[in-house]
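Session log. Operator J.P. requested a structure for one protein chain; no other inputs attached. Running the standard single-chain path with token output.
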Amino acid sequence: MPLYLIASVVMSFGGSFNGLDTGIIGPVSDMEFFRADIATTSAILHGLVVSSVLLPSAIVSVFAGSLADAVGRPRAVTIGFCVSGFGAAIEAGSIHIAMFIVGRIIIGIGIGLYLSTVVVYICELAPPAKRGVLTTMVQLFAAIGILTGYFICYGTVYISSSLSWRLPLAIQSFLAFLFAAVCVPLPQSPRWLTLCGRHDESRLLWIRLGVSLDGEGAEVSDEVFSDQREDTESKKDDQPSVPPAVVLQTPDHTQLEDSTTVLSHSIMRAFRKDVRSRTALAVYYLGMQQLCGIDSILYYAPIIFQQAGITSQKSSFIASGVTAIVIVVVTIPATLKADSWSRRMQTILGGCLISGCLFLIGILYASNAVHQTSGSARWVVIVTIYAYVISFCVTWGINYKSYPSEIQPPATRATATSLAQSANWAVNFCVVLVVPIFFASSESGPYFLFGGLTILNTAILFFIMPETRGRTLEDIHADFLHKIPHARLGRRSINDEHVV
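Structure written below.
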């Protein structure tokens, strides 16, 4: 098995921690002993506890690209997991709500540092023909993490003490530190080595990774060299708006910019005239994804199923666990077939299916057809929730992991992807914070809101989203530089000639 495949699979495990947090926090915050120990009885406090991980992730993610550019992708991921593990340990030992929220904030800082870098690393290692499958494996492992979190909580809910909610969080902390240790021996990204001026090391690493320099390795290496030349020329053109940075030499021969200029320089570079349209598209693409409400369904699944008629807490936990099983089962073939159908088709078809499910649930609640103890409408709601989750997992859940990184040039890939992930978390924070309050005041309103926003964003992306499936990153980059119309972008396969 080639090393690039091993490294990509290992790094994909990073998605499992984010999924594990999603799978654990919803059931934990609804446990009897948690509510007694931490006091989250109001909808506002419940929303604050669950969402407090998201805003720090959004803020710190802005810095994550600069950290990944400075120390390398695997090291940045290792740092992020160590921080997350520390935060989960604080959660597990919390004695009041303030301490628990501090732990959530620290977890958010760690997730913000590593998650976007995980996708960037895999995207930079993967050959064009394998890129879609490998980058979307992060979503598969996130689904496995959600499943694991739900059933850990289902197993501990029977414990008649505070250990029922502390044990899942302790397990989460242990796994974070374990994964940090696993990341240490991973090789650096050869693209990152090239951007640091270490060209010979980069070419040797491509061979070690199992990517032939006579084929795809040559393409990706040439892409980086070409991009560096264009980056240098663009910097000359934009010199008044992007001040030169002070370059420092580190012991491992990487070049770091002075700490007072590195962040602003990285962000300004992502908004240069030749790349800002790609940065803006990535930010919009990932930010608007959360307006379909998927994380609110996953975070508050026990409450949503109770609202639909599964009134027992243990039964609602089982229904939530079934949701996680469904996610894993449908994500496996969706991941394997990620490069079999176009990114645009996944996005547009997914938006239509997701909004249709949301509108149906909203109509059933608005017409007062759903009764918790009788009637078939409540089962229609439950089945439609599963259909909604399936629609998301096989379309948006897969597509949104790879696309924002694919459209970026190497020089700004880490920063632009981090900014996009930051937008995703910022929007998600707002959604997850207000959803408990929204559901407490209206059963149908959230579904109509999320459905309307989903179909609106789908229509916008129909007009602004270029195709990238089967393209080398070089071809995608060249088409953007030459302003190829979106209607033509992506029509060629990876076997066609490059744009020169």
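Operator note: The CA atoms of residues 43 and 436 lie 5 Å apart.
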